[in-house]
Structure formats: structure tokens, C-alpha cells
Amino acid sequence: MTAAELLHRTSSADLAELAALEYIEPFGELRADLRAAMICQTIASCAGVKDATIADFMLRFDSDDESESSDQDVEQQKLIARLALGDKAT
What pLDDT is recorded for position 63? Predict the structure, then answer.
């Protein structure tokens, strides 16, 4: 079944319910990204990184806030390098 056929057969109420469900309980690639971020946060904590949050490791594709940059600052790059070399972050 194509996406067009699915949309033709599905009511707007069903689509709204699906959107609400995904908002409450993410599934698909967002869920996979969340699991990967949880693993990264756990590894960082075991490596001695203090105050690392799951949000620090979530992929960001768009930003509504133009002032927010997805570029890493120098301190983040140093932390990544220390982790890659197996050094404990302080």
C-alpha cells in the first residue's frame, strides 16, 4: 500500500490519534535515537563525565531557535577527544 492509499483510507481522527500517541510514546527512529543517547550518556558517566544528560547526546536536525547552534564548541570537542582516547574527563 502506498502512502497516498493509506491517507485515503485513514480518517483524520485516526491520524490525530496516531500523532498524539507518538508524542506521548515515541516510536520509530526517534525512539532508536533516544535509546542510543541513553547508552552514550551511560558510557560518558562511566568515563567520569559529570552532569552529562541524555539530551546532550540526542541528534538535532532542526532548531526553532536560530540562536541555538548545532556546532560543537571547543570544550565539547576536547571532551570528545578525551573520551575517544580513553582519558577521564574532569
Answer: 61
Dihedral in degrees, nearest 10, Cα atoms 35, 38, 58, 22: 40
Q: Tell me the pLDDT band of 41, cut-offs 50, 70 and 90.
A: very high
> Hey, where are the domains in the chain?
11-85
Averaged pLDDT, 14-40: 87
Looking at 1-90, list the stretches that DSSP marks H as alpha helix, in order from N- to C-terminal side: 3-9, 12-24, 29-46, 74-85
CA distances from residue 74 to 50, 78, 81 in whole angstroms, order as listed? 17, 6, 11
Terminal-to-terminal C-alpha distance of the chain: 54
Name the DSSP class of 59.
-
pTM, 2 dp: 0.49
- What phi, psi does 42 have (nearest 5°)? -65, -45
